[in-house]
Every structure is written in C-alpha cells, then in structure tokens.
Amino acid sequence: MIEVTERGSGSPGRDVAVVGGDVLTLTPQWRGGSVPATVLVRDGRIAAVGPDVPVPAGVPVVDATGRWVLPGLVDPHTHLGVHAEGEGWHGADVNEKGEPRGARLRTWDGVDPADRGFVDALATGVTTVAVLPGSANVVGGQTSALKTWGATVDAMLLRAPLGVKSALGENPKKNSSGGRGPGTRMGVAAALRDAFATARRFADDRDRAAAAGGRPGPVTGADRDAEVLARVLDGELLWHQHAHRADDIATAVRLADEFGYRLVLNHVTEGHRVLDLLRGRGLPAVVGPLLTSRSKPELRHRSLAVPGLLAGAGLQVALTTDHPVVPIQFLPVSAAFAVKEGMDPDEALRALTLNPAVILGLDDRVGSLAPGLDGDVVVWSGNPLDVMSRAVHVVLGGRSVYRWDGRGEVLGHDGAWSPV
C-alpha cells in the first residue's frame, strides 16, 4: 500500500494574533475588499477572524496597522527542493530519465530543505507549494504539498501524495530515456493508454486474488507503478498534466474522458485557443510560468493575457512560477502582469491563494483565512499586486518565520533569527 502522509499543523505554543490590519480573507464567500480585523491563531490553527476578536493574555501580537493581511500564498507547480538554482547536475533531482513511466517515484524522497528557494518563497509570502517532478518523462512520479519552512522534508510535508505528474508534447519526445521512451506525440499518448490499461488489469487481478483468498506474488517496480495509477483511476490522486499547445491540451482532455481521472491542466499556454473545450468540461487551469521568453515552439503563443481570458470564461485559474523556471519570488509579480493584461484583480488574488488550494484539494488546510485552517498569515506592506509591496511578516502554522524591518530575517531551526 502506498504511504499517504498528512501532517497536523497544530502544536502547543504556536499562538499568535495579527491585529490592526486590513484583512482579506479570500474565503469562498469573499467578494472583494478588506475589513479591519484580528486573525487569532491558537495551537497552529486559525481560531477566529473578525473585528471584535479578543486576544487572550499571553498570546504574542503582530501589529499590522496600516498593512494588508492575507493568507499565505500557494504555488501549485514548483520544483522546489528537487531542482536547485545554479547548482548544475548535482542539484537536479527533478527528472529520473531512466524511468519513462515512473509513477512509483516520489518527489518528497528527493527534496532538499536547504534549497535557497524555500527562503525566497517565505520572503514572498508563499507558505505552501506543490512539488512536482519534471516533464522529461511521460509519467514523472508522485507530487507532494509542502510548507516552505522546516528542517526536514517530513516536518514540511502537508500532504503526500497529491497526485501523479505526466507530460505531453515536446519534453517527453526529446527525452526518450535512451530510446526506450516514445519519440512522437502519438507514441506518448499510446504509452499513457498502455500504462492505464496495465493499471486496470493489475487492480482487477489484485481484487480477484484477494476475493479468492490468494496470496500476492512478488512485487515488481511495474506493479508499484500500476498500483499508483490504479489510485489515479479510482479518483484518489490527481493527474497533473503538463500541456502547453492547444493540441496537447485537447489530447489531455481526450485521455481524461477515456479513463475518467481527475485532470488538472498545467501550463495551459494555448488554453485560449481551446476555450470552449475547457469551459465545457469546467477544467481547472494552473497557468504559467508567465515571465519567460518564447524559448521553444510550444511557447510561441505565450501571452500574459491568458489567465484573464480563462478566468473570464468562468474557469478556476491558479498561477504558477514553475520555480526555478521563473524564481518563486516573482509569483505576485506574475499576477500583477496578468491584471495589467486584463485579469480581474480580485480573481488574481484568488489565483494566488484560494484557487490553487481548491485545485490541489488543500482548501481544508490552506488558501484562505477561516477558523480551523492552518495559521498561515502574511502581513503585506500594501497591495500584493503592487510590485513595490513586500511581505513584512510571515506566520506559518502559528509561528513567525520571516520578518522585514529594513532587511529580511528568517527564523532558523535553532530558534534564532538570521539575515536572509
């Protein structure tokens, strides 16, 4: 059985009250605007949000007067910890090219918590990230959700596995695992059909053996891959599909229709070219990275207007940096440029918070400020969509972990503050 890990965020002593700020709750009921309010966190979870919340004696207070207060930002597609910036091959644990169909691979086995990108995330108000394998393989492996502060990956894990990453288009074609993987788009699609057919057969054989009281035979790597994909077919795990071009997006939808899994489209660069298809299925879209050049043919129609066009059509849109493709500190900047090109500002804020949480199935823990959710609260100097604004105080699970007072400081795992 595949391990499912979910960490609780609450523990004694993780109490804080953020007071005096203009609070944007970003809950599903939020309709824009802010209210002067207190956010009270007890034992790592939000206990209350409102203008008249009393602060119990002994609870540390963060004064947010004149500031904006939002939930921690969520980036739904990163390679934090598995693809370190500027470290060459030894920092690249993102693509296991020897496994063209590696569903059993787990991203959280490769995460380095010392990756500088986690500090950059905190300094940007990003408190939750999804960590995905790369797109060199048809099936890259299992995805995970992490908090951006912790000494070990086990302490950072929010939920794992979230789903399984798959790639369509140019990347799996050009990285064909030494000739053992497909080299055409029809070959990539056929490989996915074969993998899911094998998963169905594996699950049927396993269930028949169990009903008959039989004993399982030796477990191979192929069996473990099939077991994971069977959970995708059962709807337990998301299917994170890398697709840039319109024809690849259509193939992703076609495969999802055939096998019935929960599809989350990633990148969606040409989503505006198949808008009716996406709208008809009501599919969520993780859009980005936006701040890149048109560095390959799949990006020839890349446009900063795409998030607004998709959101305007009623689709649930989240924004991503695909870190380190675009450094994670540019996540709110990406939203600002999307607004400049037509995206509604309130929807852009949702695309950084609530929407990615909902898309990933994490909205019971993160993405908004509501009682019962994790105490991830960010105090901003101003509107996060203003490029001159910065995160000035970051609370993660009720613990202050980042602060700015003329320079950035991060809380060390020894409990001491140090300059960023």
UniProtKB/TrEMBL annotation:
Source species, please?
A: Kineococcus mangrovi
Q: Which domain of life is it from?
A: Bacteria
By its UniProt entry, which InterPro entries does this protein fall under?
Amidohydro_3, Metal-dep_hydrolase_composite, Metal_Hydrolase, Metallo-dep_Hydrolase
The protein, known as: Amidohydrolase
Q: Which PANTHER family does the record cross-reference, listed alphabetically?
A: ALPHA-D-RIBOSE 1-METHYLPHOSPHONATE 5-TRIPHOSPHATE DIPHOSPHATASE (PTHR43135)
- Pfam families on file: Amidohydro_3
User: What positions does the domain Amidohydrolase occupy?
Assistant: 288-402
